[in-house]
Design brief:
The chain has 372 residues and is α/β, with parallel strands linked by helices. The chain is built from twelve helices and 13 strands. The chain has helices spanning 2-19, 66-70, 72-82, 114-124, 138-143, 180-189, 213-224, 234-242, 259-275, 293-302, 316-323, 353-364, and strands at 37-38, 44-45, 55-60, 87-93, 130-132, 150-154, 160-164, 230-232, 248-254, 280-286, 308-312, 333-337, 343-348. Helix 9 runs parallel beside helix 12 (353-364). It is elongated and about 80 Å long. 36% of the residues are buried.
Length: 372
């Protein structure tokens, strides 16, 4: 079976790589390829929608990339500063959402779907159109961005005059030495030549639809991870809650007889796969009787819950008090515990995945510069 999977994967790789288009970055001096793409404001945009602007900056960016997120505020400020001076701006997400793995979402609460783009645009107060190219990626193929973000600056005749980074500092907490895009805009507005018309970019690679075979492999690896269920005593629960680690701890209380618990558990497994590469851990504790241990383990195996899982061995009311005195005992119940034992978030009932992911990533940080 293992060898069949490997052979199938190799065939998939060979097929996809032999059929995908060659991607080349649009060279300076080229005309702007047209597009017709949907936006988060429920409109479609093409080049003609920006004809009023003497200059046009097209920024390929996305939701999930830490580097792209690090540039969001600077992008918004550039629009505020230069749109009144005749510079149009448009952001385009080039990624196929199905080519983005859960493990790549560790610095975000959102993926690169149009639905999540709308959430991000609203939360950040985007002051420029944010377009989705993930369905066909035809615009990204035409422009050839190297990473997110990658900006293409065009003059009045829509000839490409600058291509590359926004500036030379990915860390949002440090001022850049060279503000490349701003310098290029200033030069064109003043009728001067751009000193550096092409720069390298740094950020996340473009998630092309034909490069998703490794996601299939990763899913198989996750499926093969061992799933276990261990007994936990009251004293060990107290030690767990004290959280004398450097990790943000998500603890979920559940049971095999609890329908809502079983409904939400797959989302908790996804959340674990998103953030476990950072200072984060997901732990589940079932309140089932020890006589139901085999049944509980079977459920966990079905969920592919390779995180730490426990079954409580003591009295249920002692568990309730040990987990959280504020907990009234209804299942499911989840808490986020900071290092040192402070309860950051209490979630009675079914989790709202989006809310929980946002709480987690806001704590851990959205940028590579963040140390959590």
């Amino acid at each position: 079976m293992k060898y069949c999977f490997l052979i199938s994967l190799l065939l998939l790789c060979s097929k996809s790589h032999s059929q995908h288009p060659e991607i080349n970055t649009l060279p300076t001096g080229s005309s702007a390829p047209d597009f017709n793409l949907p936006s988060t404001d429920d409109r479609y945009y093409s080049l003609s929608d920006f004809s009023e602007y003497p200059l046009l900056a097209i920024i390929f960016t996305c939701n999930h990339c830490p580097t792209a997120q690090a540039y969001e505020d600077r992008m918004i400020r550039l629009v505020e500063k230069y749109r009144p001076k005749g510079v149009g701006f448009v952001a385009i997400s080039p990624n196929d959402p199905d080519a983005v793995s859960l493990s790549e979402l560790g610095y975000s609460d959102l993926d690169d779907s149009m639905e999540d783009m709308k959430i991000r645009a609203k939360e950040k107060g985007y002051n420029l159109p944010y377009l989705f190219d993930g369905k066909t990626q035809s615009t990204a193929i035409a422009y050839g961005p190297n990473a997110t973000p990658h900006v293409f600056l065009f003059d009045q005749n829509r000839i490409l005059r600058y291509s590359g980074r926004i500036d030379d500092m990915e860390d949002p907490y440090v001022q850049p030495d060279t503000k490349d895009l701003q310098n290029a805009i200033e030069a064109l507005l003043a009728g001067r030549e751009i000193v550096n018309p092409a720069t390298k970019t740094f950020g996340c690679s473009i998630k092309w639809a034909w490069k998703n075979e490794w996601i299939v492999k990763q899913r198989e690896e996750w499926k093969a991870e061992p799933v276990s269920l261990q007994e936990i005593s009251l004293d060990n629960v107290k030690t767990l809650i004290a959280n004398n680690t450097d990790k943000l701890l998500l603890i979920n209380l559940w049971a095999t007889w609890c329908g809502p618990c079983l409904m939400e558990f797959p989302s908790l497994v996804d959340i674990n796969r998103m953030y476990r590469g950072r200072n984060f851990e997901f732990v589940s504790i079932t309140t089932d009787k020890l006589s139901q241990e085999v049944k509980a383990l079977d459920k966990l195996k079905n969920f592919e819950a390779s995180n730490r899982n426990f079954i409580f061995t003591g009295k249920i009311y002692e568990l309730i008090e040990a987990i959280d005195p504020a907990w009234q005992g209804a299942l499911p119940y989840s808490i986020l515990v900071e290092p040192g034992g402070n309860v950051l978030e209490r979630i009675p009932g079914i989790i709202t995945p989006q809310m929980l992911k946002k709480r987690i990533v806001d704590y851990l940080g959205r940028y590579y510069a963040d140390n959590k």
